Amino acid sequence: MAEDQFTNVTVIKKANIYFDGRVTSRNVIFPDGTRKTLGYMLPGEYEFGTGTSETMEIMIGELQVLLPGNDQWQTYKAGESFYVPPNSKFKLILKGPVDYCCSYG
Asked: What does pTM read for this prediction?
């Protein structure tokens, strides 16, 4: 797992809310302008689209993901991460809540 805390960052207070509140995240902006989001997802099935590449790190919980170009679902759990290429879509299935961190670019 990557770093446990971020220092010298700006956190945007307003949440990003998706799927009727079942998925939320907050933007964390670093001094060099890079951005991460810290979020929480409730059980369910979701499809997301990306503009830039992203790496999703699972902090707590477990999910299944169907990545672009794959026909097999893969399982990721706490301490693991996966990469999503830019300008693509991916699907998630969660049986329980998941705490996550996304890194972009």
From this structure: 0.91
